[in-house]
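Quality-control log, excerpt.
Job 1 of 2 completed; input and output follow.
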Amino acid sequence: MKNSNLRYSQSKEKSAELLRMVLGHMGQHDAAFNPLTFTVWFEYAAGMNKQLNQAVDERLQSQPRLGDADLLNLYQLHVAEVDPQAMHRIGSELQRVMQSLGDKASLAGGQAGEFGVQLETLVSELLGANNKLAIPAVAKVIEGSARMRSSAQALESEVKVNQLEIQRLQGELARVRDESLLDALTQVLNRKGFEQKLASMLEQPVGPGRSHWLVMFDLDHFKKVNDTHGHVMGDRVLQALGEVLRSCVPANSGISAARYGGEEFSMLMPDTTQQECSKLAELVRTRTKALKIRDRRTQVVVLTVTVSGGMASMHAGDDAQTLTARADAALYRSKQAGRDRITGD
């Protein structure tokens, strides 16, 4: 079973192919040959980071040779990990401050308005008393009050605009955070997303007769697929399995599908019975077996695939590592027993 980081889950052969492309890119630019530069060009060549590819392509239109500063900037913006909880906390705090400022601006505007009405009443009374000496001074105060009210209203309006922009940015951050947890090829959770969902699941309570379940899946003879049909066809098989997993997850069920590493996938099923887990795992197996991968030019079926699975339920004292190990062991038993089957722990 594979234990590599899913962010870079390419096979040795695919990595060698990408290496040649990366070295070609690095040789065309002025940035130093270092791990940071290599990482940017590796993700660019692999096509695994859509935002990075778009940013690089846009920059190359006006700047054909990229230097160290360019690669550092691209790395920081599109490759380096972001702490989503910290970003959300900062955004929420800024939103709270802007809301407070808006409330104070609104209050100041209202008070200025009340003060202006009081002054206008005073002017009327002075006019009635024919106190011409006081009228010019009071008129200046009224004019200043109007300016103050206008400034407060402008500030209130600007704060509201900024609040909307912060809300937009928070939404964009949430979208980016969600995208960072998805595997670009298969559109199920990536390894990082899997680990977050698993940690969350283990903290949830379960009902009577139910448990938290983890199912590990592995495509059978996937190396043979790559060797016989090439990595492009291998990627199509992985995409197809991703579609199968997504189609098997009931809406609003709390169940999550993930690509664990390479050709190994998983399903997290919180607060589920053994029967429900087994039924869903079998559904994944049968739908995978029914897949027909066709030649896109001739529509001729070129291969079919099967998947093996291993189920494990959470036991007292389990953590993420022990639960995953038992599901992986059950998967291994399925492989040993002839593949294309689901085995429980």
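Job 2 of 2 completed; input and output follow.
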Amino acid sequence: MAIKFTAWWLTHSNAILSDALESIVNVVAGAFALYSLVLAAKPRDREHPYGHGKVEFISAGIEGGLVVVAGGLIIWRAISALLHEQHLHSLSTGIALTAVAGAMNLLMGLALRRRGRQSRSITMEASGAHLLSDAWSTLAMLVGLALIGITGLLWLDQVLAIGFAVYIIITGLRIFRRSVAGIMDEADLGLAAEVIARLESARRPQWVDLHNFRMIKYGSVLHIDCHATLPWYWTLEQAHDEIAAIERLVNARAASGATSFAREVELFIHMDPCVPASCGVCALADCPHRKAPVQRRIEWNLQSVLGNAKHRA
């Protein structure tokens, strides 16, 4: 931020000023993001039985809002400059300083985005995306400033600033939209489909049915609720062992890092007893209480397991 404001002070370029103003947002948002990461890492307690991970969505929302505000200020400053005569100074020095600052943002943005994806932290991903958008807009601005130096058309500086501001606002709105989706527990259907596909690939005959599947993300922890239909005549111990097998299956896959749900997974599985109507979709060959032959096999996917009703033949 200091480098960019120095470049603006030397050049009086509104394009560079727009970049510097966004850096203020980077610093403020980064400070809050750091606080939210420290808070999210705290273990669950009596007041927060699901942990503190939701604060990351709030942090990302605040960062997205600040980005949008910064974009609006940039547009206002550029329009104001268009109405008044402006002179640029020391353009080559300003370009060099801004290039150094942009390169620093690029490296930090790539590191934050990579680490955020690895740890499933929307806060770090949002900060990384913010810094990367700043780096790319800086690159585009440098190209524009070079054109100003070649052509002498000073009004290009304001046009570029407005263009960068629009891009910044769009980035901020995307970050804000994602944070709201997390706070509202919006379903990540892609992630849900991956978990369901894993269960389908290792499905056992005694797992008669799966339905009422729901998934919520709390920071880096994934909570899954579902109903599993098991043979009605099993003992409580047998049913518990099968539920434990389902939990191990999901968490073993998650711990391996082989899929996009490589995170801690907490499952709450409600056990349902099968009913005579379940016989037509049950593949358990040695069932001593079968009332009807198997008529069809229901594949577990998003369409079949999200509903809150047992499947029937």
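Post-run check on job 2. The chain is about 60% helix and 10% strand.
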